[in-house]
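Data availability (excerpt). The following record was deposited with the supplementary files.
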Amino acid sequence: MLHVLVVLLLMSLSQGMVHFLLQPNWIRRIRLALTLFGLPYTVCTSGVRSAISCSSYPFSTIRPITSSCYNLYMTSAWTMPSSAAPHVKSRCPQYPGSNIKRFPVPDDKVDWSQNWPQYKPVSYTDPSVAKKPAWADPDIGSFSPHFNTVDGAVDRTGFEGSYKVEEGKPLNPHGRTGLNGRGLLGRWGPNHAADPIVTRWKVDAKGVKIQHLVTKRPILQFVSIKRKDCGEWAIPGGMVDPGEQVSLTLQREFSEEALNSLSLLPSEKAKIHERITKLFKSPGLQVYKGYVDDPRNTDNAWMETVAVNFHDDSGDSVSELPLQAGDDAGQVQWVDVDSSFTLYASHSRFLELVAKEKKAHW
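Predicted structure:
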């Protein structure tokens, strides 16, 4: 079998990347062969993780196949991700919620500055977006949006500066994705979201902080939801409505997704609103603001977010409220903050930054 792999590697030298869809028992042999050639590679484990959970690593820093893709962006709090590392989830072979396959884009062809006449991206806009709901833009041509500015009530500015516009369509600032159109995203260009990271300390029956047995650091817990669309665990965030302040989006999305506020009785809503407002009016730690390597991204539409940590230090705020899944959440629960817990998109990286800031276990 090894000689077959060598042939495949040689055939891929012109692109500088090898892309395999593998069963887990062949991964070690593939890595050994790739080591001999010193090539970067992308591995998607079919049947083990969903198509939108694609892991790609440069060969100089091999990590286990179960590691998250998002660690390619080594950032610290309040900083943007490095643009040197190409986005990964945005190029995963199968577009989420569909049977659409992206045009394969190797690492060295991601940047728009790389001349690539052979690039033929697949055009796709999900039917739910094409039906022109209130939260989505019309097709380019039927209207003329003003990009890189606040266009009426819609903020079309990018957190990382101006992005290019060609033939009336914005270009993803982090490069090619293998798919143009909007996919599942409503807005052409940046689609702004807000991710509230609500945390507390894990304590014992006496209220004493529990330390991790290995790191000897206190353990944080955060409110996590299981997304209905892909089945992955995530921070309970959502899209910023036109003209809405991000602070209000953070509070609204947490209430709707983690506390199911939309279905509560007025008396219950009042109690929850009081505690939630108190927590979200406290000084939050802005963990991240920028581009998100999201599987829904396309060449012309992409996710950007503001992630803010709100910490219930005393444990007498949201910690005492009963969590109840609502809106886009299938399940909701308090989860220990730990590097082994795999999360949607870049959410794992956000939690790592929170843990470091709090000097907690990671």
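Summary of structural features: Residues 266-281 form the longest helix (16 residues).
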